[in-house]
Amino acid sequence: MKMVSRTALGFALALGIASGAMVAPAIAKEKDKKEAGPEQRKFKFSKKAQKALGEAQAAQQKGDNDTALLKIREAEALAETPDDKYMANALKINVALAKQDNAMLAEGLQGSIDSGSSTPEEKLKFQRSLAALAVQKNDVPGAIKVYEAMAAEHPGDADIVVGLGEMYNRAGRTPEAVATIDKAIKAKQAAGQPVEEAWYKRALALAYDGKLANQVLPASLALVQAYPSPTNWRDVLVIFRETSGLDDQGNLDVMRLMHDTNSLTGERDYFEYAETADKRGLAGEAKSIIDAGAAKGALSSSKPYVKELVNIVTPKVKSDRASLPGLEKEARADKTGRMAKATADGYLGYGENAKAAELYRLALQKGGVDTAEVNTRIGIALARSGDKAGAESVFNSVQGGKRADIAKFWLAHLNSKGGTQTASTVN
């Protein structure tokens, strides 16, 4: 039995995990055990392997790595205890680093792990180095094997789980990659730790690039709930619009959300929103968006098509607004809810959210309307009026199809960190 200081075992590995050479503990003489302090670890070397290990270390200290390697191989052949194997591989790591031999380094790292003598901290260092070596030589299956082992032993280490996700992606296992990164995000959340924005974006990028429709929406929602910046909102809503095949009515409600999240940017966004609103007979909303775009410098009245839209919309607004009370009266007398729904759309476009919600509810009572669409707009009206609880309840009632997805985005806006604190209106 030999006494060796654990603190002397400075396993400083290559590959960016640590720097410098590993310092293996001296193969101490029997009498040294009396001098061992309370923090020192007892290594148990067999008599057969001890001599070869000592000679290997002596040769290594003289810079004679070839002789050291011969003695290491001799010690491995004679090894009986876990510490014999551990020390042989510890010395092998030093030789590998001196020779810049990555194959030997991987052998030493794996041998140290397999010896069963390394501490949990050392084992994790060795595993990380093995994974890095595998990545360096583009051995993705090898890297996955190591990462899976680390993740199984350290399921709460989100960085390891993210690394495993990236390896799955490199192997073309994109669905697993997205699910694994999502698992890492949830692990951080469960531990009450902040999650890097880059992780959310990476999960979304992988799902989007991989055309994983079932994973794009959850990844999008997770990103904007955690980091509800205008840029992130624009990114996720543009992706949603591109991949969802929305009709004009659905597209209009998504653009309304872009307005409320301050994620409308540039001429295209403002012009498309205003043009769509005008086509749906919502002159007041169209004019409001034109004015907002002009105020931000996104729309220029000198552009012929912008000027044309302004000339179409502006004359309509006064008479359109004045017609709403009369249309409301007709809607209440109508047998179906279609007129009530159309009138509610008009009120919503002018920012009269309470009146809009009232007429949308009337439309549902009378029937003949798209229930999911109307409930979405009741939720929008309530959200903009500051009734968060009411809006949440209505949005949660929207089930099935793209309308349910639109409602989920509005819910994410309501519940995002730093989300809506005050009512948001178009006007």
UniProtKB/TrEMBL annotation:
A Pfam family it matches: TPR_19
Superkingdom of source: Bacteria
First and last residue of the signal peptide: 1-28
Keyword Secreted in record: no
Alphabetized UniProt keyword annotations: Signal
Keyword Signal: yes
Gene3D superfamilies assigned to the protein according to its UniProt record, in alphabetical order: Tetratricopeptide repeat domain
Record protein name field: Tetratricopeptide repeat protein
